[in-house]
Amino acid sequence: FIKSTKEIGIITGPLHSKAFKERYDAYVNFLHKNNININKNYIIESESFGFTSGYNACLNLLKQANPLPKALVVGSDEIAVGVLKCLNDNKIEIPNEIEVIGFDDNIYSRYVTPSLSTIAQNKVEIGSLAGKYLLDMIENKTKLDSVTRVGVKLIHRESTKKYWNRFQSMLYYNYKNKKTGFLRKGALWLKLKIIN
Length: 196
Hints:
It is built from 6 helices and 8 strands; from the N terminus they run E-H-E-H-E-H-E-E-H-E-E-H-E-H. By secondary structure, it is α/β, with parallel strands linked by helices. Strands 2-1-3-4-5-7 form a 6-stranded mixed β-sheet, sandwiched between helices. A two-stranded antiparallel ribbon has the order 6-8. Helix 2 crosses helix 3. The chain starts with 7 loop residues before the first strand and ends with a helix.
């Protein structure tokens, strides 16, 4: 996602989660679209959704990727905070040696060191749509089984350098082609999407 490198890795959350699978697919599509070879040593699936799984996934990356990628996309901010801690503990300079970007813009992403660049979802819009669809399901006793796309916004902080053209174009491409930033209209998926 950074203009200066083609060495881009990903630490994704568990791929049985639809949200993490969509983000992983967007990463793969971006690499293909930009003729960047996929390095399997740069792809790590964390065992769970939080800090510890991010830390452990980063340890796995450090063991299997030599050299490390120059840029690292992480499936969520919770996982990314564990990744930042692991990189700091191993004396790897962020963003000089590796740039890291998360997803969700959780409150603590701005308070960690270095502060975490991230992709923000419009949670107000997601919540509003979730309420609207849930009421429609209750009142009309209908099952809604379609997908509504909600835009995302890049929040640049200290964990990345200031080259954003390629990554912004990836976000636009995937949003335009309905490959990311989605909200499923089924009640169970809405609940999972809001939690994740």
